[in-house]
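Sharing a chain and its predicted structure for anyone who wants a worked example. Both blocks are below, sequence first, tokens second.
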Amino acid sequence: MCKFRFKIRRGLLSTGECYASGQLRERQRFTWLACAFVDTEEFQRLRDLKQLGLTYLVYPGAVHTRFEHSLGVYQLAGEAMNNLKMNQGKELGIDRFDVQTVKLAGLLHDIGHGPFSHLFEHEFLPRVDPGATSKWSHEHMSALLLDSIVDKHGIDIEPDYLKIVKEMIVASSKFSTKEGAKEKHFLYDIVANGRNGIDVDKFDYIDRDSRACGLGSNFQHWRLLQGMRVIGDEICYPAKDYLSVHKLFTTRADLHRTVYTHAKVKAVELMLVDALLEANDYLGIALHAEDPEEFWKLDDTIVKRIESAPNDELKKAKEIIQRIRRRELYKFCNQYSVPKDKLEHFKDITAQDIVCSQKSSKVLLNEEDVAVSNVKIDLTRGRDNPLESVKFFKDSGCEEKFAITDDRVSHLLPACNQDRIVRVYAKKPELVEAVSEAFENLQLRMYGEKTQVHDTPKKKKRSRSD
């Protein structure tokens, strides 16, 4: 492990190489400062956080971690900065300090993720505290954890520069600072782009996730890295690359539909969240999210911790995890896509909504018998088109930036930019028919018709026997 102290000042960055794992790494790939952060237990924890959480139970190859993703974003951030420096370095005043801070932000942007990545933030914490979504984000925890690492390991980085790295990390979150407060604002759009969503974080995980899951991807991030140009303190792209930018957003949406929100992936996630909730009071899982010095101790191994605990207090949690191990998953009943004209005022469907829609008296459903997954898939900007926030230029010598509307490129591009999908599961196999019928009744009550396109499990069974 690297043990040292040094300062980072504008124009006075370390140029040494880091000796790690018995090999001397090239200066351009890993500076001493980056090594100082990587060789901490807080960063090494990312080796025990799967990038795609529980997706590997459906896509066996999806076992890559936040560790290699973070190294990939560090590399791509460096490529983006090198391209800008080579083409516009003098014009923009890009110096080695700028390059290093952007790369550090790429390296450290995900250190605040909890167990099983987004499941912890978007599924578990809101169930513990419904108001948690307004108080907590992994970007904000990354910034808090960064402060803790600097203090604990004595990394002597000046406060002003540490502040810039943290602002770059939270640039796309609700904790970002106002745009007007930032010098060289284009630097803040490289790792986590709050303006239009085009950033090297997506470049890396789209390629990495597609490859790990055995899916093809036509998105070519190198075209955008090579073509980007800063005009008016904003990163712009050649007009000829409009469809490449569009492909970035649609590929991401396809991954959400086919991988991240796969029906069986969501079934397993719902089960693990139930297990974590059962274990929360005894293990104080949610309390760790309030303190960065305790938070870094949480990772995916918490499942083994629950399984191997001798305590009776964790019996229910262990039973749920055992069901996951034995593939006794919550049973998928059905799903429907929210009609386009109902998207604006749509509210998440709850288990109570399903139970209250039951008409048959054969089986009396309770809320704890039903699990609901409300899936939102968009192009990063909700119902808005993110391409409307992207600026383009005609050629490399042009200093004029402009927006491009879809109809000037193709009439085949989709007119709607968001899907909302409601999926319902029965926690016990014998309740599938009752939950399915209640779900149909809910659709009839809300929309006057059944909007699902799949048969109910009972009808599927009947058609097979015929």
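Comments welcome. The longest strand covers residues 370-378.
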